[in-house]
Amino acid sequence: MVSRRLFRYLLPYRRELGWAVVALLAATGASVAGPIWIKWFIDDYLTPRKLDAEVLWGVAAGYLALHVISVVLTYFQLLSFHRIAQWVVRQLRVDVFAKVQRLGLSFFDRTPGGSLISRITNDTEAVKDLFVNVLSTFIQNIVFIIGAFVTLLVLDVKLATACLIILPLIGGVMWTYRHFSTQVYRRVRNMVSEINTKLNETIQGMTIIQAFSQEQRMRREFERSSTELYGAHMRNIQLAGLLLRPAVDAIYLIALIVVLTLFGIRSFNGFVSIGTMYAFLNLLERLFEPFIQIMLKLSQAQNAIISAERVFQLLDENNLAPVKTGDDTPVITRGRIEFRNVTFSYDGQHEVLRNISFTAEPGQTVALVGHTGSGKSSIINLLMRFYPLRQGEILIDGVPLTAYDDKELRRQMGLVLQDPFLFVGTVRENIRMGDPDITDDRVEQAARFVQADTFIRRLPRGYETELGERGASLSSGQRQLLSFARTMAREPKILVLDEATAHVDTETEEAIQQALRNMRQGRTTIAIAHRLSTIQDADLILVLHRGEIVELGTHDELIAHKGLYHKMYLLQAYGTAS
Question: Stretch 109-123: mean pLDDT, rounded?
Fold first, then answer.
């Protein structure tokens, strides 16, 4: 199954593959013809002592020509096979990356990032080895084996038939090695994936590791994983050391003894052609080298098959991101949001939201407050259609959320997270985010709107300043301001804010709060708030507790109600809920 799927990737390159196979056949023919050429010389000229200069020069020139032809064609076919393999793996890697882009966030919730990186890089690279080895080494050697056997049959049918005894012996060795190596290689690939996961986690959490002096513990855990990987590799080396070259060499010795014995018996009964004997032994010796090469490459091929299984498991993953349903193409014009009896569970067993219902009118700001785990982020995740909705309904402008195209949703809904993510690139590129419709003037206008223009122009190259990974060269507040500018450059109808001012200093926060008040004109804003002081002017505040809305109203109404919101406010303002 895996092999069929892999070779489907060859179909676009079947013409190039055909020429490579033709070159391979021609190179094999030239290589096999060498011993026949020498046999003819030995029997027709060397034995009867017809050794004039013209014959010697002719034999040498012919043998050299066959060798040159074989070398040139071998180079061409190897180059062709490697080029095809690179093309195939390039497409496979692109397909895997594209599939990852379409997967739902629930998949990433349960899949370590290091494991995905391992599949996209290490496993696809191993698949490349499969194509190179199968297309080049396997096919080349199999063709040579067939050609050599045909030549042996032409030289002596009885002796060649006797040599067929080696085929079941070699087949048995190959089957045994493949049977035992499959489990070993699957263990190796899993351990490589686990090591990549640990590396990714360690690098991402280096600050915490050093802050809590966890270097020794992390080193021990990594050493334990590396030791397990070492053990798996050693088991494979032991297996290969026993079943690869030593076993094939033993079979070759058996075949050599059989052939020499038969030649010896025949010499008692009549004439034995020295040329035939030379060509037969030469081809027999050269016949075993392809078997050895196939056995040596079999380990790499087995490793690649396991890697291909992991790659196709990812390609077959059906946990896709939610997409639109229906043929209509509605557009968001007002930004009215309505939740109707929404109940949601991430795992299908434990409900994180229960019967959530509320309405956010255009221009209104609706704030979500509550303790950790109350369901605030889940409401935003569903509104952004990051997760499929199983029960209830979400409408925008009276149209079900599922009816909107992804492009329309992402263009009209601006998301600002508590922990902003910046990409490697310039400041301008991080604000524009690859949208060709956003001009340079619009980028700078958005930056001025959120009070980011001032600090950007103080950077070494202003808007053209290159940012490192995750914008590490900027402060937390500066990164947050850039994420604000990124959102405002698209002029969305709906704003979704996840404690957007959490990493901004007090002075900058006041400026952003003023900008947010301006932005709310004609826009619907859904804001998660941990600091209640930032949402006192919200039009509607929803207080969540264990996945349910337990209170709703304005700040003054909820304070007067003296319920959960009142207690939270007193705790933050005075450190007491009394």
Answer: 78
